[in-house]
Amino acid sequence: MPGPRTPAYWFDGATPPLPARLLEPVYAGAIALRRGLYARGWRRSAHPGVPVVVVGNLIAGGSGKTPLTIAVVERLRAAGRRPGVASRGYGRQQAEQARWVDADTAPALGGDEPVLIARSTGAPVRVDRDRVAAARALADAGCDVVVCDDGLQHYRLARDVEIEVIDGRRRYGNGRLLPAGPLREPAQRSAACDFRVLNLGTESGPAHAGASHGAAHHGVGPEGAASVEFGEWPMRLALGEARALVGARRLPLQAFAGQRVHALAGIGAPERFFDTLRGLDIGVVPHAFPDHHAYRIEDLHFGSDLPLLMTEKDAVKCMPLLRTEADADLRDRCWAVPVRAELPEAFWVALLQRISIATQRASAPETPA
Predict the structure, then answer these.
(1) Strand order in the sheet with 334-337
(2) Which parts of the chain fold into alpha helices (H)?
(3) 323 has which bridge partners?
(4) Strand 99-101 relative to strand 125-127: parallel, antiparallel, unpaired?
C-alpha cells in the first residue's frame, strides 16, 4: 500500500500543526550551524579535480531534477565532454555499498533515478552515500565533468556550478523550513546558486500561475512565466511517444485521447503528471504513490483492463515485475510516458561557459605561496 505523502499544509495555505512549528527552529538551527562550519573552514569540502555541476532543489520532494540532469549530460556529451553522474541513489537496498549503475542494474540496488539516467544517457553513473567518493570514482574512470543528481545541501562535495530547479506550480510552498514547510534550506539560499531553472511543466498542462507563497518575490510574471531578468530560466518538459514496458511498441499519446486510462505516478508531484495527461483530453483515473515507492505486482491491478500510463521513473521499477510476474494482458496494457527537458539555447551557452572556466581553473598550475 502507498506510504506517507507530502503534508498538504506545506502547499495549501493551512497552518502547520503545533509539533511541526515547534521543530522548525530546531531544524533551522541545525542547518545554520552546519553551513557555518563549512563557511568558516572548520569543516572542509573536497573537490575531485574535475568540474562539478550540482543539480538540486531547496524543497523536499521532486521538482524536475532528473529530466534536467539527463539534459545536462546529453548537452555535455554533444559538446565533446565526458560527463558522469554521481547520486546517492535514494531508497536503494544495500545503501551502504557504493556501486556502478548501468541500464541493466536492478532499480532496487541502483535506485530508480540513477537507473533511469543510465538508461537514458549511457553515461557512467556512480551511487554512493559519500558523494565525494562517487565524484572521485567518476574522475578516476575518465569523466571530465561530474554532474551530481541532487546534493545541493551536501556541502562536503565542493562544486563549481549550482543549478537550482524550482517547481513552477508549487515553488517554495508556505515558505517554511522542515517540518513545518517543504524547505530544506531558507529560500534566500537560492540567491547563491549560479542558475535557477523554473520547471513550467508541459505545454499541455494547466497554466502554472505561481500562486504559492512568496511567488511574487521570486521572479514570476503573468501566467507564471519564468524571466531571465529575475535570474530564472524557463524549462518545459516535452512529451515523447508512449513506449510499451514490454516489447518495442510505440504510440503517440494522442492515441489515448478521448478514452479513460489508469495513470500511475510515484514521484514528488504526481498531480503534474495527471494534469499533463488531462491536458491531452485523456480521461485519467489517478493512482498516486509516494516518491521512490517500491512497487509490487499488486500495485498495478486496479480492477479494470484500461490502459495503464506511468512516468519513466516508475517504469524502470515496474518493468521487471511485468516481465516476471504479470500475465500477458497486463503486460500489453502498460506504457511509459517519456519527457525531455527543453531550455533556451542561451542557458546552455552560459552553462558550458561556466564549465569551461572551471576546467581551466582546475588544470591551471598552482602558484607557489
Answers:
(1) 250-251, 242-244, 334-337, 308-311, 260-265, 283-288
(2) 18-39, 65-78, 107-110, 112-121, 131-140, 270-278, 312-325, 328-333, 345-363
(3) none
(4) antiparallel
Residue 252 · residue 241 · CB < 8 Å: yes
Q: One digit per residue, pLDDT tens: the chain, 369 residues? A: 444 568 889 999 899 999 999 999 999 999 999 999 999 999 999 999 999 999 999 999 778 899 999 999 999 999 999 999 999 988 888 888 999 999 999 999 999 999 999 999 999 999 999 999 999 999 999 999 999 999 899 999 999 999 999 999 889 999 999 999 999 999 999 999 999 999 998 865 444 433 333 333 334 333 334 444 457 999 999 999 999 999 999 999 999 999 999 999 998 888 889 999 999 999 999 999 988 898 999 999 998 999 999 999 999 999 999 988 888 999 999 999 999 999 999 999 999 999 999 999 877 665 554
User: Three-state DSSP class for 275?
Assistant: helix
Mark 331-369 as b/e (b = at least 16 C-beta within 10 Å): bbbbbbbbbebebeeebbebbeebbeebbeeeeeeeeee
Torsion angles phi and psi, residue 278, rounded to 5: -60, -35
Assign residue 171 a region (left: φ > 0; alpha: ψ between -120 and 50; beta: otherwise): left
Q: How far apart are alpha carbons 338 and 253 in whole angstroms?
A: 10
The grid coordinates of residue 241 equal 511517444
Residue 356 corresponds to which cell in the numbers above?
A: 569551461
CB atoms within 10 A of CB 16: 18
Q: How far apart are CA 86 and CA 213, in angstroms?
A: 32
Q: 2: exposed, middle or buried (C-beta count within 10 Å: 0-12, 13-18, 19+)?
A: exposed
Question: Residue 291 carries which DSSP code?
Answer: T
Residue 90, Cβ density class (10 Å: 0-12 exposed, 13-18 middle, ≥19 buried): middle
Q: CA–CA separation, 125 vs 134, rounded Å?
A: 9
Running DSSP on this structure, what letter comes out for residue 243?
A: E
According to DSSP, the residues that pair with 55 across neighbouring strands are 149, 163
Amino acid at 67: P
Residue type, 47: H
Query: Is 207 strand, coil or helix?
Result: coil
Q: What is residue 118's three-state secondary structure?
A: helix
Look at the pTM and tell me if it is higher than 0.85.
Answer: yes
